[in-house]
Write a structure and sequence with these properties.
The complex is a heterodimer of chains A (about 110) and B (about 110). Chain A is mainly β and about 110 residues long. Chain A contains no helices and eleven strands. In chain A, the strands form two sheets. In chain A, strands 2, 4, 5, 6, 9, 10 and 11 form a seven-stranded mixed beta sheet that branches. In chain A, strand 4 and strand 5 (about 40-50) form a beta hairpin. Chain B is an all-beta fold and about 110 residues long. Classes of the chains: A mainly beta (about 110), B mainly beta (about 110).
Chain lengths: ~110, ~110
């Protein structure tokens, strides 16, 4: 079974631009979560989607948004990019809503904002 | 709210020596706890998880962790370090009722030959 895939793997943008990142979960998984990883702040939860609905949201500004499609694929969008948005963005999928289920992570998208 | 503290941002051990990575958690309810490993330029890979069954949890690659409620700890150990264990390790607690992991700051493990 294929793992979580994320595209693109690397991205360079300039301040003020917007970016869309994509995540395809493991087949059969319906929950997708997004995390931001930076050297200073570590791993921080962005949001989680289940059955096309956002169930939980972390403490990030409204510039960060996401959505999930009927096939469970998810996208996250960051508008008006800032230098501080440079980070590794990780997507994780889970088969169900249960909080004891393992989250399986993708390889991440590394975003550099210049 | 749950939180995780990993003691020691860097740990260095010799090949063949015991690996001990420390994790303490704070939770108002019985927690679900996880250890993940991250190799350079890769995502996170689950090593093991505790979900209120056996307190001693065995994971992949020879790692294990023991849940100690009285100490609010979930330390990760491996009897004999291998060069391939060099990576960053993250302890995480699951926010109950949510698919949301709260991570510690990570511990970078270096293995000396």
């Amino acid at each position: 079974k294929a793992g979580v895939t994320q595209t693109p793997r690397y991205l360079i943008k300039t301040r003020g631009q917007q970016v869309t990142l994509s995540c395809s979960p493991i087949s059969g998984h319906r929950s997708v979560s997004w995390y931001q990883q930076t050297p200073g702040q570590g791993l921080q939860f962005l949001f989680e989607y289940f059955s096309e609905t956002q169930r939980n949201k972390g403490n990030f500004p409204g510039r960060f948004s996401g959505r999930q499609f009927s096939n469970s694929r998810s996208e996250m969008n960051v508008s008006t990019l800032e230098l501080g948005d440079s980070a590794l963005y990780l997507c994780a999928s889970t088969i169900s809503q249960s909080d004891q289920e393992t989250q399986y992570f993708g390889p991440g998208t590394r975003l550099l904002v210049l | 709210a749950q939180s995780v503290t990993q003691l020691g941002s860097h740990v260095s051990v010799s090949e063949g020596a015991l690996v001990l990575l420390r994790c303490n958690y704070s939770s108002s309810v019985p927690p679900y706890l996880f250890w993940y490993v991250q190799y350079p330029n890769q995502g996170l890979q689950l090593l093991l998880k505790y979900t209120s069954a056996a307190t001693l949890v065995k994971g992949i690659n020879g790692f294990e962790a023991e849940f100690k409620k009285s100490e609010t700890s979930f330390h990760l150990t491996k009897p004999s370090a291998h060069m391939s264990d060099a990576a960053e390790y993250f302890c995480a607690v699951s926010d109950r009722g949510a698919q949301k992991l709260v991570f510690g700051q990570g511990t970078r493990l270096t293995i000396n030959p």
